[in-house]
Design a protein that fits this description.
The chain is built from nine helices and eleven strands. It folds into two domains: 85 residues, Rossmann fold (3-Layer(aba) Sandwich), CATH 3.40.50; 120 residues, 3-Layer(aba) Sandwich (Rossmann fold).
């Protein structure tokens, strides 16, 4: 399709950066401190350390204070919970990020749910998820909310669309489905074990691929003129969850990999952190 739109997350994130930076500086001028994000990383997962470094740089670029707490691989669930509780009580901290994944012996669910909902800028708590799903005020999970912001930036109308979310993770697939449903899309959730997946893909107006498997879907499975959001990224293969070969001749809009969903995720975390400080001071 000659008029296929590339949903450029890198550009949208860049365009919103000045707005976020100005909000940060306004808060600093009024309250004599900048918004603050505390990041916790447990263990030595190289990808996690890379992601946290990227988030630290983005915080600095947006006039946000960031402090990273690095816990050893043999830390216990109680160690992480105690640190989160201390950060909950720290009035100078506006947002708390626990980098996923944590070592397998740690109860990630318990750790997430220890985060005070007013500081849950990554949208990982059960209460925050429930509030989002019920269309109540909450900090939304950063990747799906970043996708929603990207679609809004390109004036994609979701009402009435048949939307398919492939993936059911707590921080991507499930909240993505809820956000689309709240915008009046008709939503189906599928996953790698869905039996009629190819049929569902071919019938969907909007597909969000978040299954975590490289090139799990091929472009020719998609419905003509549909919209594709590829939320996967696999650095070793340098690809997403969709084989994008020939994509522009099939869909009406799609996210590139890289440069689509990824930049919006970090940008949304930064926005949520600033919004948390604003809420604290009723700005």
């Amino acid at each position: 399709m000659s008029n296929c739109i590339v949903l450029d997350g890198k550009k949208v994130a860049h365009d919103s950066s000045q707005f976020i930076r100005e909000k940060s500086l306004k808060l600093y001028k009024k309250f004599n401190r900048k918004p603050s994000l505390a990041a916790i990383i447990v263990g030595n997962d190289p990808a996690s350390h890379t992601y946290v470094s990227m988030k630290e740089k983005s915080c600095k670029d947006h006039e946000i204070i960031t402090k990273t707490y690095k816990l050893s691989d043999d830390s216990s669930t109680e160690d992480v919970v105690d640190l989160i509780n201390n950060l909950n009580l720290d009035e100078s901290v506006d947002g708390i990020l626990l980098q996923h994944p944590v070592p397998k012996h740690i109860d990630e669910f318990q750790c997430f749910n220890t985060i005070d909902i007013s500081k849950d800028v990554d949208g990982v708590t059960t209460l925050g998820f429930g509030n989002m799903f019920m269309n109540q005020n909450s900090f939304k999970s950063c990747t799906p909310y970043g996708i929603m912001r990207l679609l809004e930036a390109y004036n994609v109308k979701l009402e009435g669309l048949n939307a398919l979310v492939i993936g059911r993770s707590q921080i991507l697939g499930k909240p993505m489905a809820g956000m689309l449903l709240n915008e009046n899309a008709t939503v189906t959730i599928a996953h790698s074990k869905t039996r009629n997946l190819n049929e569902l893909i071919s019938q969907s107006d909007l597909v969000v691929a978040a299954v975590g498997i490289p090139k799990f879907i091929s472009a020719n499975q998609l419905k003509s003129d549909s919209i594709l959001i590829d939320a996967g990224y696999h650095p070793n293969e340098k690809c997403g969850d969709v084989d994008l070969s020939g994509i522009e001749s099939i869909v009406s809009a799609y996210t590139p990999v890289p440069g689509g969903v990824g930049p919006m995720t970090i940008n949304t975390l930064i926005l949520n952190t600033v919004s948390s400080m604003e809420a604290k001071f009723n700005v």
